[in-house]
């Protein structure tokens, strides 16, 4: 056997041993946590982190950290102090990224300004003060299509207002009347299953506050931002 073949064989053996060790560690972690903490639910993924001896445990969109034996469990942020990076935050951004083309737009209504070529989706509660401020500022942004997802999370009154807007003949006008002109929509009734689906979608992607914006490139912004920032995000998404 030549030296090159021996080196290749040694590399294959080493890779096999590494894979076997990694598999054994993952199995040990799953077994230990599954037996000791069944309330955690199904563990979807176990991966090694850049920190020696520390493993990431993913349950749905929740992240935990543990040792190789599953004896300890940590919930919090893992920060790379050398590179000044929040590794947990970066991982969550990837997990919670929303594919704009996959948004359930049938459960939203649209407001089009100008040529409507640029696109943004917004999740908002009709009782949200920050949303009202955002909507007033958004009036300055032209040539955009806004996909408005009613997201009533602030209480029963939010649900009532969202229903009245959704059941209006002109949803866009009713929404702007409520948010920009402080004119509430009259009581109305219709199929509001779309609102329930919006809440489920938000729960899945951890949309915990309003407004939350999603741009065409999948970038996500929680909170009210001004028109100049919206313009910049729209331009960046287009590029």
Could you provide a short overview of the structure?
This protein has helices at residues 3-36, 87-95, 129-138, 156-166, 171-179, 193-204, 227-238; strands spanning 45-48, 55-59, 62-66, 73-74, 79-80, 85-86, 109-113, 118-124, 144-150, 212-215, 220-222. The chain is an alpha+beta fold.
SSE inventory with pairings:
Elements: H1 3-36, E1 45-48, E2 55-59, E3 62-66, E4 73-74, E5 79-80, E6 85-86, H2 87-95, E7 109-113, E8 118-124, H3 129-138, E9 144-150, H4 156-166, H5 171-179, H6 193-204, E10 212-215, E11 220-222, H7 227-238
Parallel strand pairs: 8-9
Antiparallel strand pairs: 1-2, 2-3, 3-4, 5-6, 7-9, 8-10, 10-11
Describe the structure.
41% of the residues lie in helices and 19% in strands. It has two domains: 3-95, Disulphide bond isomerase, DsbC/G, N-terminal (Nuclear Transport Factor 2, Chain: A, Roll), CATH 3.10.450.70; 100-238, 3-Layer(aba) Sandwich (Glutaredoxin), CATH 3.40.30.10. The mean pLDDT is 91. The protein has helices at 3-36, 87-95, 129-138, 156-166, 171-179, 193-204, 227-238, and strands at residues 45-48, 55-59, 62-66, 73-74, 79-80, 85-86, 109-113, 118-124, 144-150, 212-215, 220-222. The chain contains seven helices and eleven strands. A five-stranded mixed sheet has the order 7-9-8-10-11. With 239 residues, the chain is α+β, with helices and mostly antiparallel strands.
């Amino acid at each position: 056997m030549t030296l090159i073949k021996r080196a290749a064989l040694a590399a294959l053996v080493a890779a096999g041993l590494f894979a076997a060790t990694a598999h054994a560690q993952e199995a040990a972690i799953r077994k230990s946590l599954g037996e000791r903490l069944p309330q955690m639910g199904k563990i979807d993924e176990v991966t090694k982190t850049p920190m020696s001896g520390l493993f990431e445990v993913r349950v749905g969109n929740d992240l935990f950290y543990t040792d190789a034996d599953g004896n300890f469990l940590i919930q919090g942020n893992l920060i790379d102090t050398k590179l000044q990076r929040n590794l947990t935050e970066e991982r969550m951004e990837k997990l919670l990224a929303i594919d704009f083309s996959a948004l359930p737009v049938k459960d939203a209504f649209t407001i089009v300004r100008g040529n409507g070529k640029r696109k943004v989706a917004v999740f908002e509660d009709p009782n949200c003060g920050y949303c009202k401020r955002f909507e007033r500022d958004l009036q300055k942004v032209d040539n955009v299509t806004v996909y408005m997802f009613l997201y009533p999370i602030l209480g029963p009154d939010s649900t009532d207002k969202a229903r009245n807007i959704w059941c209006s003949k002109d949803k866009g006008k009713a929404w702007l009347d409520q948010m920009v002109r402080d004119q509430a929509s009259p009581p109305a009734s219709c199929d509001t299953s779309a609102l329930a689906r919006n809440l489920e979608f938000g729960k899945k992607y951890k949309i915990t506050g309003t407004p939350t914006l999603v741009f065409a490139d999948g970038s996500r912004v929680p909170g009210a931002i001004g028109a100049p920032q919206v313009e910049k995000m729209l331009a960046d998404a287009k590029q």
